[in-house]
Amino acid sequence: MSVYLVTGVSGSGKSTLAQALNDRGIAAIDTDEDQELARFVDAAGAVVRRPDEPDREWLAAHHWAWNPARLDELLAAHRDETLFLCGNADNATDFGDRYAQVFLLAVDEVTMLRRLADPSRTNDYGLVGDTGELVKRWRPGFQRRLLAVGAIPIDANAPLPTVIDSLLGHIY
């Protein structure tokens, strides 16, 4: 089994990519869809419900985090196949020993904001409360940090078929 983390900021195309890979018969998990895996936690690690309009203070005191036990369950369930984990969490890179490689869906601010505002999008993060301002401030540093630790950049501004071909070209 090989597990590949495909990460990026909100609006970079992680969920869309996961669906497109699954449509091609390639195992991919949109990590935001698994509520046992991805959840907001407080400083003590307790799971909390996100308010409808999170402000800066709430966002600074809470983190989107993956449950390590649930991550291991998902990996065990896919142990005989290549798996793409498409998502992001504050602790996603803490599990580096589980990934064959990390890919960064690098996106510019204009594209990110356009995608966040897409009415067909099912995730409201980046649109409610102060989440949009947080994502805009966070994007440049996040992308630099991932590249500095060896993530392979994928141009997520490109059309989806190009993104898929670029990703798979690194693996197959």
Average pLDDT works out at 95
Q: What distance separates the N and C termini?
A: 14 Å
Task: Classify the oligomer.
Answer: single chain
**What structural category characterises the helix and strand content?**
alpha/beta
Cα shape: globular
Pfam family, one: AAA_18
Protein name: AAA family ATPase
Organism: Fodinicola feengrottensis
Describe it for me?
With 172 residues, the chain is of the alpha/beta class. The chain has a domain at 3-31 and 71-88 and 98-169: Rossmann fold (3-Layer(aba) Sandwich), CATH 3.40.50.300. 36% of the residues lie in helices and 19% in strands. The chain has six helices and eight strands. The strands form two sheets. The protein has a five-stranded parallel sheet with strand order 2-6-1-7-8, with helices on both faces. A three-stranded antiparallel sheet has the order 4-3-5. The model has no long low-confidence stretch (mean pLDDT 95).
